[in-house]
Design goal:
632 residues, alpha+beta, 3-stranded antiparallel sheet
């Protein structure tokens, strides 16, 4: 199926036709005319000759295709470059998800490496045969940044490229520094393999007696480090020799130390948290006792207010009854005098003595009437005073009632203890007002309630200060535990989900049911592309905050949100792709609604896969310790 580069070079194309030929080769790859994937993890280049064919990882094949396609070597034909550019495009667009290593950096040593082989540390590449020219008595060549950019474009991601200079100028050599981690070693080995595949590796350089054309490159090892040359001198000044086994052992020691430190911190925080819980419990008991005592005082206050109001009402009723009796008596005397006056006026006195007697009686009646009128005036004044006293009593009661209502409205917004203290103050004010007539018993009660009020206010202030301190300490402890949990999640992200404890992406959509459904509906040929389109579409639906296919139902007396099976989108999904796809989308919806309903994006969570629940911090630390003991 696959044609070699030698076959394609028989009839080469011009540089202007590369893009057209690249599109043609890309369509052939998409139609399945060439086999690229040889197994779940390995790939091969269909355009390289059988002698040069070998198995690649996804990233290695992508770097190979990109490097050959952008190579300036004259050994490669234009067709060969166009074919490799088409292969790189096919890998990036159509096979992006086939290898997990294409999406995340490697956290382990590359496969196939001898762990006892001695390398230069930090990982360093060697580039030789860099073109130089003699200018003003000194050799000059290309800059390190230019070569670094070329290597980055080919996917090797060097950190720095440093040309080597001597007394004659540019030596034609350079060292390539990679990142000091396993991805850096992976890039370095890919860098070496790419040049070896292009017959520009270290062995090719030695075989050509240092007279080849183009750049030659490899990864620095012990022989380069110990060489008596400008390269060896630079390597000895800037690094050391280490094996992969030594690097892995050192990394394991660092991880062990980190786990030990985290365990100690968590134990200390747990002890501190238990102490805080104990103090909070004691404060809660004290607060409950204070509330009970407050309730008793409130009840006593209400009973005392009822007694005072009853006494005042009885006293006013007695005054009113006495006034009514006196008023009736005065009216009765007045009617009698009026009757007697009218009888005297009717009498005809026959003699002077009778007239004098009559005059005297009349004068006496007039005087008596005058006295009665004065008494009536005094009675009216007394009535006015009584009514005024009654009105004052009524106003005082209304003022007292309004004040109590106002206090209740103000105290509703405060805490329970503050409410009772303010009501005690209101009680004291009322008793003080009612005790202005000098009742010693009321004055003593006022003084007693003042003392209780001051004591309760002091206890409330102390309790509030203690409670605030405990809240601050508990919040600080919780923040520190959350930080430790975040660090643990960050450290466990690379561990496989087949382990009991790991990191689960909450709200992530399971793609397998989509692939199976598309195979049944569209056939094997179109299933891959259709499944990718449907997965992308439903991932967008899951992130859409305006789509909320939930309803609230009552379960055992509590309201809960559940999936609305009558939702139009979910219903059409079930009808078109089946129950498995519907279940996968439903599970992702439930997770994202539980763990991130506002943001509607995927978050990482520490997860117990064995029990199917959120893992505790203690379980995560125990798992790390177990892993460390096994690795040790």
């Amino acid at each position: 199926m696959g044609n070699s580069s030698n076959d394609s070079s028989e009839e080469d194309i011009s540089e202007s036709e590369i893009e057209e030929y690249e599109d043609k080769s890309y369509e052939e790859l998409k139609n399945g005319n060439y086999h690229v994937k040889t197994s779940d993890q390995s790939f091969s280049c269909p355009y390289c000759s059988k002698k040069r064919k070998r198995d690649y990882l996804y990233k290695e094949l992508l770097q190979h295709a990109t490097g050959v396609g952008k190579s300036s070597s004259e050994k490669r034909s234009m067709k060969d470059k166009a074919n490799h550019l088409a292969l790189a495009k096919y890998l990036e667009k159509d096979m992006m998800d086939v290898d997990g290593t294409s999406k995340k950096p490697k956290s382990e040593a590359p496969l196939g490496c001898d762990h006892d082989e001695i390398f230069m540390w930090p990982w360093t590449g060697v580039v030789v045969n860099i073109p130089t020219i003699l200018k003003d008595g000194q050799y000059v060549g290309g800059s390190g940044s230019k070569l670094r950019d070329e290597l980055i474009a080919r996917g090797f991601n060097p950190r720095r490229v440093q040309p080597l200079w001597n007394y004659r100028g540019h030596s034609g050599c350079a060292v390539v520094e990679f990142n000091r981690d396993w991805p850096g070693l992976h890039n370095a080995m890919s860098f070496e393999k790419e040049y070896e595949a292009d017959h520009h590796g270290k062995k090719d350089w030695i075989a050509s007696n240092a007279r080849g054309s183009g750049l030659y490159a490899w990864v620095a090892r012990a022989d380069d480090y110990n060489a008596e040359s400008i390269i060896g001198e630079h390597l000895r000044k800037n690094g050391d020799l280490k094996t992969i086994s030594e690097m892995m052992a050192e990394e394991a020691r660092k991880q062990s130390k980190l786990v030990s430190n985290l365990t100690n911190v968590i134990e200390a925080k747990n002890k501190h948290l238990e102490e805080m819980k104990r103090m909070v419990s004691e404060a809660s008991v004290s607060l409950n006792n204070l509330i009970e005592e407050k309730d008793k005082l409130h009840q006593a206050y209400n009973e005392e207010i009822k007694k005072i109001q009853t006494s005042a009402r009885d006293h006013f009723q007695k005054i009113f009854n006495d006034h009514e009796k006196l008023k009736l008596q005065l009216e009765s005397h007045k009617r009698e005098l009026d009757l007697r006056g009218r009888e005297l006026e009717k009498r005809d006195a026959h003699n002077e003595s009778e007239r004098k007697k009559l005059c005297e009686e009349i004068e006496e009646n007039v005087m008596k009437n005058s006295s009665l009128q004065l008494a009536a005036v005094e009675q009216r004044k007394a009535d006015e005073k009584v009514y005024k006293l009654a009105e004052d009593q009524k106003k005082q009661k209304e003022d007292l009632h309004r004040r109590i209502i106002q206090l209740e409205k103000q105290l509703d917004a405060k805490q329970a203890l503050e409410l009772e203290i303010e009501r005690l103050r209101g009680t004291l004010n009322v008793m003080k007002h009612m005790g202005d007539d000098g009742d010693m018993e009321i004055i003593k009660k006022i003084d007693s309630m003042h003392s209780v009020l001051r004591e309760k206010e002091g206890e409330l202030e102390d309790l509030e200060a203690l409670n605030q301190t405990l809240i601050v300490k508990e919040r600080k402890s919780n923040d520190e535990l959350q930080e430790a949990r975040k660090e643990l999640i960050s450290g466990l992200k690379e561990i496989s989900s087949r382990a009991n404890i790991g990191v689960k992406r909450m709200g992530e959509l399971d793609n397998n049911p989509f692939h199976e459904a598309c195979k049944r509906k569209y056939g094997v040929a179109e299933s891959e592309e259709r499944a990718l389109e449907l997965c992308s579409l439903w991932e967008e639906f899951l992130r859409d905050s305006e789509w909320h296919p939930f309803k609230v139902v009552e379960v055992e007396g509590k309201h809960q949100e559940v999936i609305d099976d009558n939702d139009e989108k979910l219903g059409s999904l079930r009808d078109e792709l089946g129950e498995d796809v519907y279940t996968a989308v439903k599970a992702a919806l439930i997770e994202i609604n539980e763990y991130n309903p506002s943001g509607r994006y995927i978050i990482s969570e520490l997860w117990n896969y064995k029990e199917g629940r959120k893992a505790t911090l203690q379980e995560g630390v125990a798992f790390i310790l177990k892993k460390w003991k096994i690795a040790r």
